[in-house]
Each structure stands twice: as C-alpha cells, then as structure tokens.
Task: inverse folding
C-alpha cells in the first residue's frame, strides 16, 4: 500500500471519528436523578428539544408507554433505561395483581418494559400508604444500580438489569417482598425487580410514613443521603415517631444505616418530610442541606467517608439552621394544621436548590393543611462568622401554597405554585420579572432545557416558555390527563409523564 493510500485511509478514519464524536456530543447525557446531581437544580444541558408535540398524530413522539392510572413519580434516565413510578391499575403481570406501588423500568430506545417493582400496599391504615397512589418517589440510577424508596417506606437497591442476569444477592426474598400480607407466596419471575438489599425505614430510623413515602436518593461516593419520610398519623394531630431522624446516610453497598441527624424535627412536622436533600459548596466548604417539614432549612457537614463496619450510626453534624417562618408555632405544629389563615403553620415541600453558594426553596402552607400563603426564598449558604447563622437574601410572594422545586438559569428563577401561576423571578434580587396564569394547579417542578422552561399542570397541559426576561410561550401540548411529575431530558429526548402515559419526545424521532 502506498503512503498516499495510507494517508487517505487515516484521513477518512479521522473524519469518521470526528463525526462520531459530534453525534455522541449531540446525543447529550443521562438524567439519572431528579434534578441536577447534588444541587437539585431543575436544569438540563440537553438541546434540540421540541417546544410541543402531538400525541394524537405522533408528531415529535418517539414512543409512548402506558402507565397506571395515577402517576405521581418523575422519570429518570440512566444506562439505557427509563424508570418511573406509577400504580398497578393497569397490571403488567397477572401474577402481581391488586393495588400496588410500581416502579417501571423501560428501554430508552423504544419504551418496552424490561421489569417492574410491584410492591404491595401497607395494610391497616390507609394514611400509611394511600390507596392507588402508587410509588411516588423518583429513583436514582448509578451504573447498574437503582436506589428507590418504595410506597411502604423501604429503601431498596435494585439491579438495573432485573432478573435477566439472575437473582443477585444478598437479598433473595423477592417473592415474599412482592406478595401481599396474608396471601400465598408468589415466587419472583422474569418481570420482577431484582432486589440487592433492603432497609426498612420503619425500623431504622423508625419512621411513621404518611400517605406515601416520597424521597429522592442523593449519591455521594460510597454514601446515600435521603430524607426519612416521617410524618403525622391519621388524625393529622399526632406524631407517632417524634424521635425518628429526618435525614439519614446509608452505605450504598450494603444498605447499612451509618449516620442520622439529631435535630429532633419530628414534633415540629406539619404533615410529612417529603423534601429531599441537596449538596453544594459555600464559602469553600461542602454543605449537605435539608429543607425541613418544620419550615427550617438545615445545613450539615457531609461525612468524610464511610464509617467502619460495625460502628454505630454517627450523628450528622449540623453547621447552621435558618427558620424561614419564625413567627409561627413549631412544637406540636401539626395540632394547628387546620388553621388556613395567616399565622398558621408552615412547611417546605420544595427541595433546596444549591446554586452559586445560595439556597433557593419555597416555604408556606401545605396544599392540604396550614396557611394558604407561600414564598420563594433565597438564602446565603455560607456561614462566614461560624456562629451557625446565615442570611436571608430575599423573598418573593407566590400566589398560593407550593409543592414545586425551583429551576435557576440565566440569572432567573422559575417556580410554579398551586395558585396556577408560573413565576419568573430575578435570581440576584428576588424582584418579579413576569408571571403567567397556567389555568391549572402545578404539583411538579419546572424543567429548564434547550432555552425553554417546561412545566405541566393538573389540567393536563404542558407549556414551554422561553428562558427570557420577556414572557414568551413557545408551545403548548394537551395530554388529556393530569401532569403531577416533573419532565426530564436526556440524550436528545424530552420525557413527560401524565397520569396514564409516558411520552418520549424528540425533534426528529427515530
């Protein structure tokens, strides 16, 4: 072969490799956790996403997968799989019938079902595990492992490959786990999830779940951090487990509880601890931040590493706390949770978003309990004097109570509320930039991706606004079924779950 021929082949090969790298770069990245890794910011780097799609004629729809009939979970995407929580009103396995919380694992390319985790309901009290609510937690994917909190208040580590590569231990009692109490055991089958380990949060740290446990696991090295899901009982006026920890750290390899907070938030819970932690840096130090169900934001020192095996659970060291509603009752707040007017108890549903050394979250009444008013707030996460205090930088009034987590991008904060409004606020000052009546309550969070703000409503409409100081609607899509979760974007695809279907949307569907 001549040198000229070799040169041409080498040149052609380099062009092919360059093209492949461009294609790979355009494909984007996974979205393996609810919100950005660590920070919880509802922002994605994906580009080339459509502003609207049409499920009726398939425009921009790559695939659609049927779910149950109530879906409150938000989709996550990792290692070629899409996972989303729903219920079992449309059973996918005749061996697993009845009311259950279901985590579906779908193929990213075409939406076909690989496996499901179909967990029976807790019995005896509907307020422990609300009928037909399904599995509400968003899972977290790392490599071939999935970490999820079930409707029964269990932290589970699952094999992303399911039973396709056998039943990987040490946990091998999937049949018992997936069989309702009082029924004959049905052994695990090919559609069942493969559980690697299980930690029952009702036993350690000893929570009392309420309605449905909701947590999004944060992975930090060898550790998992998550909110415990402790809540009120069926009277809504009593905390059955006042001493249960609210924030815990777990060994991700074994499920061993290794650390817990000692703030004793339990007696001050208004409804339930449904907000998950975030992690970021402020003042040159890493901080683990939890927005408490008592309307207080707490910052802790992250663990330096995994404690030795056999060591008792350590105490998470609190660095600072900031009460976002100091003028309201704290201890026994749940006894006043029927008080709807100003002065009623406050709570926090939103995750704390950690951006640029600041914490963005919301505080106010509960959708069901407490005062109706709510606020978007910004806290300086640094504690310059080391005295356990931080500064409230600004606050912005919302139309009504808020279950949504903020998205911070391009100097703007976007947040939806139960007053049907989407708010655009200046991230530096808290000044209102614009707002829009969405004509439907917002329960999920906005997603910023590709210069667009995607947000869904309980009336089943998905909006796309421009990330801009000028209010511009770029597209709307009617799904015909309520949207309770948060859209996700990964690898050039937008994922939107309604109560009944999951849509994978691309500008150029394959």
Result:
């Amino acid at each position: 072969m001549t040198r000229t021929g070799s040169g041409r082949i080498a040149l052609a090969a380099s062009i092919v490799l360059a093209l492949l790298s461009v294609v790979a770069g355009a494909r984007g990245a996974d979205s393996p956790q609810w919100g950005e890794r660590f920070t919880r910011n509802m922002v994605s780097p994906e580009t080339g996403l459509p502003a609207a799609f049409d499920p009726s004629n398939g425009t921009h729809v790559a695939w659609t997968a049927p779910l149950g009939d109530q879906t409150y979970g938000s989709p996550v995407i990792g290692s070629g799989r899409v996972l989303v929580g729903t219920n079992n009103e449309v059973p996918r396995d005749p061996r697993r019938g009845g009311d259950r919380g279901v985590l579906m694992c779908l193929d990213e390319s075409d939406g076909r079902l690989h496996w499901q985790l179909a967990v029976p309901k807790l019995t005896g009290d509907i307020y422990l595990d609300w009928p037909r609510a399904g599995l509400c937690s968003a899972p977290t994917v790392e490599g071939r492992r999935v970490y999820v909190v079930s409707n029964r208040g269990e932290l589970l580590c699952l094999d992303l490959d399911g039973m396709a590569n056998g039943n990987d231990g040490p946990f091998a009692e999937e049949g018992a786990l997936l069989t309702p109490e009082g029924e004959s055991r049905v052994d695990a089958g090919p559609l069942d999830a493969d559980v690697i380990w299980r930690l029952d949060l009702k036993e350690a740290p000893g929570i009392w779940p309420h309605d449905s446990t909701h947590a999004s696991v944060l992975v930090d090295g060898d550790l998992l951090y998550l909110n415990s899901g402790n809540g009120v009982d069926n009277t809504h006026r009593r905390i059955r487990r006042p001493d249960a920890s609210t924030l815990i750290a777990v060994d991700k390899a074994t499920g061993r509880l290794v650390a817990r907070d000692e703030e004793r938030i339990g007696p001050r819970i208004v409804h339930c601890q449904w907000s998950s932690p975030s992690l970021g840096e402020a003042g040159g130090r890493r901080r683990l931040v939890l927005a408490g169900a008592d309307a207080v934001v707490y910052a802790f020192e992250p663990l330096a590493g995994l404690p030795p095996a056999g060591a008792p659970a350590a105490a998470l060291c609190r660095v600072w706390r900031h009460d976002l509603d100091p003028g309201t009752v704290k201890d026994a707040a749940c006894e006043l949770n029927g008080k709807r007017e100003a002065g009623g108890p406050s709570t926090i549903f939103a995750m704390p978003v950690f951006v640029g050394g600041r914490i963005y979250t919301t505080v106010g009444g509960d959708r069901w309990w407490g005062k109706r008013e709510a606020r978007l707030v910004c806290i300086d996460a640094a504690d310059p004097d080391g005295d356990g205090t931080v500064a409230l930088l600004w606050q912005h009034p919302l139309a009504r109570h808020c279950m949504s987590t903020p998205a911070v991008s391009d100097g703007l904060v976007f947040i939806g509320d139960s007053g049907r409004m989407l708010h655009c606020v200046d991230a530096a000052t808290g000044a209102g930039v614009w707002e829009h009546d969405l004509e439907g309550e917002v329960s999920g969070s906005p997603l910023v991706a590709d210069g667009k703000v995607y947000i869904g409503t309980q009336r089943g409409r998905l909006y796309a606004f421009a990330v801009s100081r000028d209010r511009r609607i770029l597209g709307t899509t009617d799904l015909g079924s309520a949207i309770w979760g948060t859209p996700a974007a990964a690898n050039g695809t937008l994922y939107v779950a309604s109560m009944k279907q999951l849509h994978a949307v691309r500008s150029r569907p394959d």
About this structure: The two ends are 40 Å apart (CA to CA). Confidence is low (pLDDT under 50) at residues 1-27.
